Structure formats: structure tokens, C-alpha cells
Amino acid sequence: MTETLKGDDKLLERLESLAGELTSDDGLQGDAIVERAKGVCAKLTNLMEEEIHCRLDRVFLESNQAASESTEPPKQSDGVEKSIAEDLNSLYSEIRAVAEMSVDKAFKEPIMRQLNKKNRLCQENLESILTYVRTHKPVLSP
């Protein structure tokens, strides 16, 4: 009986150690972590889009200001400004897609790879726990 209890104690200790490996450090689990990562990446995409938009606006305004301060007579500036404004408007529509691709490549894809790797490791740990339990069944007596 003493040997059985000692064996059960060892089994419980082993299970506790394996279960401890499965807990998450930050309290978030599975889908919640994925959703949080996607949300953070979406916010970063929005910020990057706004930054690029502001940079283009600044460059356009600075070039207009430099042209207006120039002492040289304007050379068909209305047509050039209109052309540049049209080009900028076409760029604005593409900023979001470029920002999203950049964030996905730099952050979202590596995060998702790490999360998938962690999920695989947890699954392997669960399988090892089940295997351990199956091979070390405690003898329960009334």
C-alpha cells in the first residue's frame, strides 16, 4: 500500500510539473492572444498609414512653399501643381495596402509563427501528459 501511495505521489508531482509548463505567463490564452496581436498590428498599420500620409503632405507643402518663394517667374505652375496633386491622390489610395504589407511582413507573420510554434509545443506537452498518465495508471483501492 505504501509503495502504491508513493507511486501515486510521484505521478501527481510529475503531472503538476507538466501542467505548470502549459500555463501562460500573461494570463491570455489561445484565441485571445491571436486577437490581441492582430489588433495591435491593425493599430500599427493605421499609424503607419497616417505617418506616410503626413510625410507626403509635408513634402508637397514644402515644395509649394519653395516654389512660391522663388524669384524666378512661374513656368506653367498651375498645370504642374495639378499633375502633382493628382499623383499624390493616387498615392494616397495605395498607402494603406503598403502599410499593411509592411506591418504583416515585419511583425504579424513572425508573431503568428511564434504563436503557432507555442501551440504546437503545448499540444506535444499535452500528448506527453496523456501518454504518461496512460502508462502510469494509479491503482485505486477502496
Using brief descriptors, characterize the structure shown.
single chain; mainly alpha; 85% helix; 3 helices; 142 residues; rod-shaped
Description of the structure:
The longest helix is centred in the C-terminal third of the chain and has 59 residues, at 77-135. This protein has one domain. The chain contains three helices and no strands. The chain has 142 residues and is mainly alpha-helical. The mean pLDDT is 83.
In brief:
By secondary structure, the chain is mostly helical. The protein has helices at 2-22, 30-69, 77-135.
Main beta-sheet annotation: none
- Please give the radius of gyration in angstroms: 30 Å
SS summary, helix count: 3
Structural class, judged by helices and strands? mainly alpha
Summarize model confidence as the mean pLDDT: 83
How helical, in percent, are the residues? over 70%
Distance between the termini: 12 Å
Residue fraction in strands: under 5%
Give the H and E element order: HHH
List the helices and strands and how they pair.
Layout: H1 2-22, H2 30-69, H3 77-135
Helix pairs in contact: 1-3, 2-3
